[in-house]
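Hi R.,

Here's the input for the magnesium ion complex you asked about:
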Amino acid sequence: MAKKTTAFRCKDCGAPSVKWTGNCGRCGVWGTVEEVGSVVSAAKATDLVSLGSFDGTQAVPVPTGIGECDRVLGGGLVPGSVTLLSGEPGIGKSTLSLQIALSVASTGASVVVVTGEEAPGQVAARASRLGEIPPSLSVIDDTSVDVIEATLRLTRPQLAVIDSIQTLVVPEVDGTPGSVVQVRAAAHRLTELAKSTDISVILIGHVTKDGTLAGPRLLEHVVDTVVSFSGDRHHDLRFLRTSKHRFGPTNDVGLFEMTGAGLSGVEDPSARFLADRCVGAPGSIVVPALDERRPVLAEIQALTSPNGDRPPQLTSQGVGSGRLKLVAAVLEQRAGVKLWGNDIFASAAGGAEVKDPGADLGLALAIRSAVTGRPYPPDVVACGEIGLAGEIRSVAQLDRRLQEAHRLGFRRAIVPASAPDGPTGLKLIRVSTLAEAVSAVEPVSV
Ligand code: TYD
Ligand code: MG
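And here is the predicted structure with magnesium ion in place:
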């Protein structure tokens, strides 16, 4: 129903108000508040509240006790926050969240897991493989949001894990579980619950490879934090990244390895990626790449295979196919490395994902080494973005990348001309063009 609302304003300081008061709420002067007109609207107006009167202290995260999770979350889970953990089916979301649940419960805090996907017996079997089950870890074997909400309001755990949001049912809403309306309604209800009770909530959501399934995409604006779990199911490596985080930066990455006893954090990814490196093989070079904010050394490998007299076919794994095309074209056109008549395969070894343009130079040199059949000396790394004119451009966070290369025992680095001095003991070879880079360090003869 339409409603007439009268507006008031202080004629001294101009502070607006929706009701008449004897003295002004802002400047405190008596007798200055006067009517300035009225509006007709369907809604009742609310009082304006000064922003400064709210408690603006930063929310303090509570550690999960899983180091790689806490790294990505900026310290842990904030009480009353909702975190969406998304990823493809089978990638390890249930395992990771169960490990978080076990870890938090092992401190004595109460934790509840809603087991919409699996029977409680299956969850118990998995949990007992991952560690001892603390008495403060409980399950709710129900998918009705009404039941879940009532139980959580009553029991007030520190953490509730919902596995998964796609299995929940909001009885008042039409649609089958997993449908857009159901997923959205369930997430809204649980978000309100979290805010009003200070329970931290983890929502698990499945996505398909192209991200089309109803669920996670819809929820990104509702929740406080979105973390995605990814990796190649044929490798053991898993990457945890934040794409939204209301309480801190989003540019870190957590690394895990899926083992027989659950996920274990990879504390030294560079050492892990270089563990099986075949030193002295042609077509290989190590690049100090950046995964989000974290410097990671990765081995780039290239192989060429004669294809008759045809243009190269390019195949890539773990390195962007767009980068490979660009690098191959510039290598041929600007640095005079003949690729015609060869198919080119390029990969980041050991399941690494190198999407950073700073890996361009390493990719170019690996291809060049493959073409000549001569390996680079094993103590060399290369880092730089390649431009279409064949220039080597500077990259973000080069100092941290070089520190990481030095820590892992590398002694020489081919870098852009503008590079700052690196750590003592790491010799920098500065280059402005790819042609210069190609002749700066000669691959050794075998
Ligand atoms: P899961 O956590 O069920 O994936 P999601 O919830 O994302 O669908 O993990 C599934 C895979 O993880 C499954 O193929 C088995 C494997 N796995 C291990 O290799 N080791 C383990 O200790 C556990 C618990 C699972
Ligand atoms: Mg699961």
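One thing worth noting: The chain has three domains: 3-40, 67-267, 271-440.

Cheers,
M.
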